[in-house]
Amino acid sequence: MALKKADWLALEKKAHELRRLTLDTTFWAGSGHIGGGMSVLDMLTILYHRYMNIKIEDPNWEDRDRLVLSKGHAGIAYAPVLCDLGWNDKEQLKTFNHTNSKMGMHLDSNKVIGVDASTGSLGHGLSIAVGMALAARVLGKSYKTYCILGDGECDEGSNWEAAMTAAHYKVNNLISFVDRNKCMIDGRTEDVLGLEPFVDKWKSFGFIVKEVDGHNFNELAEAIDFALQNDGAPVMIVANTIKGAGIDFMEDNYVWHYGAIDEEKYEDAKKSLDAYYKKRVERAEREGA
Amino acid sequence: MAGGLTYTAVDSTSLSTAEIYGKALVELGRAHKDVVALTADLAKSTKIGDFQKEFPDRFFNVGIAEQNLVGVAAGMAKAGLVPFLSTFSQFASFRAADQLHTDICYQNVNAKVIATHSGTSFGQAGSTHHAICDIAVTRAIPNLTVIVPADGMETYNAVMAAYETPGPFYIRINRGFDRVLYKDGDYGFEVGKAVTVHEGTDITVIACGSCVFQALQAAEFLDKTDGLKVRVLDMHTISPIDRDAILKAVGDTRRIITVEDHNIDGGLGSAVAEVVVESGKGCAFKKLGIPRTFAPIGLHEDIMSIVGIDSNGIIEAVREVMGKDFELDDDWDDEV
Amino acid sequence: MADLTLLTNKIFLNAALPLVKVIANDVPSLAKKFKNVHAVIQVSALDSSMPAGKAATHFVVNAGEWQVHADKVSSRVHVELQFKSREAMNAFFKGKISPATLPKMIGVTKNLKAFVAFMSVLLKMSSLLGSTQPPETVEEKRLLVKCFFYLLSNGISQLNKNGHEAVHNWALKSPDRVYAWAVDGEPEVSAYLRVRAGKTKAGRGEYKRSMPFFKMRFDSLDSALGILLSIDDMLESTRSGKLIMDGAPEFGAQIGEFMLLVGELAK
Question: What is the four-CA torsion angle of C132, C137, C138, C140, rounded to 10 degrees?
């Protein structure tokens, strides 16, 4: 058991707040990449609120842990996280995606505090993360670099170039995730361009792979704990997730890769998230130590 | 300009451009701990092996993976290092265009791309390895300083200036066997400022890279044989381009010929034309370059001759432009 | 008719006589005289080889507004100074005044005012251009240098247009270039000559479209007069900085030679 019950419940509460905030942001913007935002939020929550070595009072602290959200279109979920930390004014979420706004679909590292890389063009993030991790080595620093990829994103060949470099240079201060929600724009990943055997691919590229339930904080914690004390090959945590997790009419439906939220859907979604939170708390109570 | 310049004319004649780059990098590496070097399996060809030998822990070969090369460099720059990455120009600009555009330039990081084997300098490798559109692409990317040094000394100056100037750089050099234009580095190199390599008031030839030497040769020849006074500008910085030098050429000589080892569309010629046209002033104008085709295979000198960007091609073009009348009024009556 | 006579006459008709307008406009006492003059005044030389039987330059004056028609004959003329021949006109303007060279004055009685005014300008012009020493006042110095510049650029252009071998060969070989004359600090005192592939065009004032290919510059009106009145030596003036050549020296020497040519023919 990696998580104490109290810690698990705290994470569940934070995750619920962030899911609600992501829904709000989508509603205020009119539409957004809510499906993939929901599937990745638990990873973002546990990283920022349990593992990442950051300073709230100094977001640009040069020895901070880095996070590259390679699936940059999940900005709709990432922005709420970075506002909730206090690094950016929450009010900005109300103008998400509006003309000249500092926050939009793909967060700009030069405009949003806490964003380590301006991602959005898929397949770039892992290379950038490898670069940051190698830089730590050159500079003699001990910060960790986290990278979260989408699974559809893994179609891009450049990811595998980065993977080979990570393996070749034993970049184990880099901890990577794939948000394996099995959906992309045109359909389910296995229907568009089959990724299976997915875990085997990463293993054959020289990674130690941990397969977890991406919505189970305990499983995530176990995998990350392992990665943190690992000094062998780099670690890839394949997190099996559900696109649109928490909002019943969106769950596991690739159509909600990007969708519009009107008043009616907003109310329905809120109800669904509340019910989902209840279930999550129940599990934590049940399974937590 | 960098202090501690240790190369004399003798050195520069025996060292190719790439070798000078390699040594410049080592010099930077010794002086600055934040300099790192990367390549995509082209350490030998781009001569950064010297750096690798001296600083093995600050050198990274990512294998034949140019997109990753640029992405990793961007990540390193984000973390506070100053990465110099080199590969062939065609791959740096086209293969990794998205990474160059987004990871380096959009994020405006302190990464320096040394693009080698530019233009048709790797002649015998053919069009798969020629870079004839890269200036067109790179000069259109915001935040990117694009420099095309004329020879080894200028490459040294450009590399040093790149370190001293924060922001993305794209330095486009040849395969490394350039004719020597500058015997020493102290001629007043400044990013964004063209160098007047030969004075004149009949016509201006604006060139970059290996074509500058050719233009100078043409100018000297034309002075001797035709009595023509040709101004030659080494326009090493394509972006930001030296508008003042161009406008001065328009005002002083009213005739401009551009020369580049690049497609005539979109490169130096187009950049200069934009300035001329925007000025609203009349000026005779001609672009020399690869004429909207893919170049044949061959030795670099031969290809330059075939497409007309060598000294003979420039001589012919100058004579042609000088022969054209561009006064709107054909009034040859004396004023009374 | 000897080529030299024709060439010389062309210079007088096209380069020298037009200066009448410049002088009439620049000297206030002379300008006053033309305030109420409305007349066509012609200076001609009889030449049976010409379709009109003569060659001439005529001026159309309207209350002080001058139009110069160089080397063009007018049939409707109020006042005419008619020379027996081109030789006679040449000799007269070179200062050889004798019964043989004096022109016939036509229309004097009916247009006395116009005639008197014109003669006074002509006299002024000949005294100015015939100076051996620089004038006293700055205004006259300015006017004289200006006239010389105009005379020289028009003169060289005429030599080319009328087939002077040396000048025409030079013009034939030349790409599009502009040669200019100027005095530092005196923007009005300037002239230029455009040359290209056998064609020439003399212009007044500063050439604005681009930097002239070559410019002969004097550091003051006095320095200019020193050279133009053949008082100073060109080499010495260059050495002392009175005369500055902007451009390759060999082109300066060439232009200098042509300036001397014009001077020889016109004096």
Answer: -60
- Claim to verify: residue B116 and residue B223 sit in the same structural domain: no
Residue B19 has a pLDDT of 77
Assign B12 a pLDDT band (cuts: 50, 70, 90). very low
Instruction: Give the model's pLDDT for residue A249.
Output: 94
The neighbouring-strand residues paired with C182 are: C190, C217
Classify each residue of B152-175 as buried b or exposed e, where b means 16 or more C-beta atoms within 10 Å of its C-beta.
bbbbbbbbbbbbeeeebbbbbbbb
Looking at residue B2, its pLDDT comes to: 37
Q: Is A205 helix (H, G, I), strand (E, B) or coil?
A: coil
Q: Identify the DSSP state of A49.
A: I
Q: How many residues are listed for chain A in this entry?
A: 289
What is the pLDDT at residue B326? Answer: 55
- B248 and B141 within one domain: no
List, for residues A37-81, the tens digit of each pLDDT value: 999 999 999 999 999 999 999 999 999 999 999 999 999 999 999
B111 & B212 share domain = no
For residue B284, what are the domain limits? 195-322
Q: Where in chain C are all domains bearing CATH 3.30.1050.10?
A: 3-129, 138-266
Query: What are the E-state strand segments in chain C?
Result: 38-46, 54-62, 65-69, 79-83, 104-106, 177-183, 186-196, 199-204, 214-218, 243-246
State how far the Cα of C126 lies from the Cα of B167, in Å rounded to an integer.
71
- Mutation to test the B interface, candidates A60, A115, A161, A171, most B Cβ within 10 Å: A161
Helices A75-84 + A5-29 axis angle, to 10: 120
Chain A residues near residue B79 by CB distance under 8 angstroms: 66, 131-132, 135-136, 139
Could C68 and B228 be called an inter-chain contact, meaning their C-beta atoms sit closer than 8 Å?
no
Q: Which residue has the tokens 């064609």?
A: C199
CB contact under 8 A, B322 and C176: yes
What's the CATH architecture for C3-129?
Answer: 2-Layer Sandwich (3.30)
CATH number reported for the structural domain that contains residue B278 in this entry: 3.40.50.920
Whole-number pLDDT of residue C212 = 87
Other CB atoms within 10 A of residue B97 CB: 18
pLDDT, residue B124, reads 87
* pTM reported for the whole predicted model: 0.82
Nearest CA in chain B to A120: B102
The helix or strand, by DSSP H or E, that contains position A184, with its residue range, turns out to be strand A183-184
What does the pLDDT read at residue B3?
Answer: 37
| B46 vs C: CB within 8 A | no
Say yes or no for a CB contact (<8 Å) between B334 and C157: yes
Q: What is the pLDDT of residues C144-193, one digit of tens each?
A: 999 999 999 999 999 999 999 999 999 998 888 899 999 999 999 999 99
**How far apart are the C-alpha atoms of A47 and A55, rounded to whole Å?**
14
**B323 to chain C: nearest residue by CA?**
C175
Q: Estimate to the nearest angstrom the gap between the alpha carbon of C134 and the chain centroid.
A: 18
Q: How far is CA B177 from CA B11, B113, B118, in A?
A: 13, 20, 12
All structural domains of chain A:
5-287 (3.40.50.970)
B282 touches chain C (CB under 8 A): yes
What fold characterizes domain C138-266?
Nonspecific Lipid-transfer Protein; Chain A (3.30.1050)
Residue B15, pLDDT score = 58
Look at residue B304 and tell me if it is in a domain.
Answer: yes
* Two structure tokens written together for C189: 């005192």
Both tokens of residue B155? 């490459």
Amino acid at the residue A151? D
- A128 to B68: CB separation less than 8 angstroms, yes or no: no
